[in-house]
Amino acid sequence: MSKLAQLDQLLEQYKQLNYHQDPVLNQRLREVQSWLKQRIQHTHQDFFQQPRHELMAQYFMNRLYGGPDFDPLAIQIERLLKYAHKAEKIIPENAIRTGLKSVGLALLAMQLDEEVAQQLLKDYPANTPLNDEIMRQTFIKLDQADARYKQLDLLDELGESLDKYMRSFIMYTAFKMCKGAAHKYNFDLMYEFIGEGFVAMKPLKSAAQFIKTFTVEERRIVNNVHSGKENPFRV
């Protein structure tokens, strides 16, 4: 079986998302994602702004939390699957494995955020500005706590994979050597998606430790919301 077979499943899940056929839902989803990213940036501001953390923070915001950047990547994934045998020769196996975890996390974020957007459209006019209280009530109504905890568990697993598979000098050298071939076969976005993980890791002593620090605080936020704490998003 192709090492990229899991991508086919992820792509099918992506196609099933409702926002593709619903412009109003699509707009609300973008607003939800914007609110979430601003909240995350605020919560982790001091941590993210440390010089050695900036690149990994950008990787989180631009790649692992979905958003418009995922749409062109999904198109390229569909094309890549048609040439899986070539892609597997171009991209090292451990890089593919870690890339799959990253793509899966980005998709999970979009699935959860779409649920939030759908609930908002049920409860409020489509042009209602989002604020902390509206989002708090929506999260509670959806009861996404278990799914959000699972998302954070998968993030921790990604951190371990980054440390285990992507810190090897030989692996990084092999990956860089694939750049020309990736460009030749128009796999640039997928190559960059994985490559940014390499670059983001370089200043860190441990990607797993960075992610663990992030997920500990995020679990506190999820617990605050679902335990009824006032102002649950404030540090």
TrEMBL record:
Location of the DUF8198 domain: 17-232
Annotated InterPro entries: DUF8198, FFLEE_fam
Protein's recorded name: DUF8198 domain-containing protein
Organism encoding this protein: Acinetobacter stercoris
Highest taxon, organism lineage: Bacteria
Pfam families named among the record's database cross-references: DUF8198
